[in-house]
Amino acid sequence: MYLEMKVVAIKKMDLPLVKEAEGEREFRVEVDILSRLDHPNLVSLMGYCADGKNRFLVYEYMPKGNLQDHLNGIGEPITEWPLRLKVALGSAKGLAYLHSGSAVGIPIIHRDLKSTNILLTANFEAKISDFGLAKLMPEGKEAYVTAKVLGTFGYFDPEYASTGKLTLQSDVYAFGVVLLELLTGRRAVDLSQRPNDQSLVLQVRNTLNDRKKLRKVIDPELSRNSYTLESVAMFANLASRCVRPDSTERPSMEECIRELQLILRTNSKGLSMALHKLGLN
Fold first, then answer.
1. Are residues 139 and 228 in the same domain?
2. Residue of 21, 93, 227, 235 with fewest CB within 10 Å of its CB?
3. Residues 208, 136 share a domain
4. Where residue 41 sits, what CATH number does that domain have?
5. How confident is the model over 150-175, as pLDDT tens digits?
6. 55 and 146 fall within a common domain
């Protein structure tokens, strides 16, 4: 008999007495949704276990950890712009799959997209994880009204926070925040700043469509010879539209995919032209 040895990641979910029902709901939602999903940019659920008050989820192992660690100096720095674009595009494809309803017949809202929930393979392929707060969109509806606003501070769609109406565009807002993290290398929330400057969106919103100001917010860790200002400006413009306060003005995830593909091509073409001028290719 042949036994295959495989490294996996195990997520333990404790069920606290005060919020036991809530914890059990999150566990069941995650198992139910993940068991029906099949996409290269979503983490794969390999198994689960319920033992007394403990709940365990067994995932495929992601050797590069999460995106935030790589942007904040904990993991290996991602200094190449095309690699950051690759992560953005992979994440966009995963979200678009959820929103398409391909897996369960109706769209799924992730509701907690953030850089710590974007895991990376050895080749820096992005995979979205943590579906404990996900919601199935009611059939024929464009919004889901919730009694309690759930998610992570810094990634909250302001429209959802103020009205309780959860939409696919709520995920687009959070995705826009991740794009800003990829662009600037900063955290979505910086509690060391003054209250009005803690949110990354508020810090950079007025600079994203001004090319002169934009240079000041580009992550200094990025290798200068890996990006063109044209591609960075296009990326910043996309991010700015994703985080617009009015959800109807945000692009869909399918539109984000198309734009990111164009940005990748624009960057590659621009770098090739620069090398040609220098006589290096």
1. yes
2. 21
3. yes
4. 3.30.200.20
5. 788 899 899 988 888 899 999 999 99
6. no
| Residues 34, 146 within the same domain | no
Among 18, 44, 60, the domain-final residue is 60
Residue 144 β-bridge partners = 166
Q: What is the pLDDT of residues 73-89, one digit of tens each?
A: 888 899 999 999 999 99
Whether residue 21 is found in the same domain as residue 83: no
Whole-Å CA distances, 244 to 6, 90, 247: 43, 22, 7
Q: What is the number of alpha carbons within 13 Å of residue 74 lying toward its C-beta?
A: 10
Q: Find the domain containing 192 and state its range.
A: 67-277
Q: How many CA atoms lie within 13 A of 128 on its CB side?
A: 32
**Which tokens in the block code for residue 12?**
């333990």
190 annotated active-site: no
CA quadruple 153, 155, 159, 163: dihedral, nearest 10: -40
Q: Name the residue among 230, 185, 154, 10 with its Cα closest to residue 87.
A: 185
pTM (two decimals):
0.90
Domain shared by 135 and 263, yes or no: yes
For strands 144-145 and 54-60, give the pairing.
Answer: unpaired
Percent of the chain predicted with pLDDT > 90:
56
129 within 8 A of 140, measured Cβ to Cβ: no
Of these residues, 14, 32, 51, 112, which one is catalytic? Answer: 112
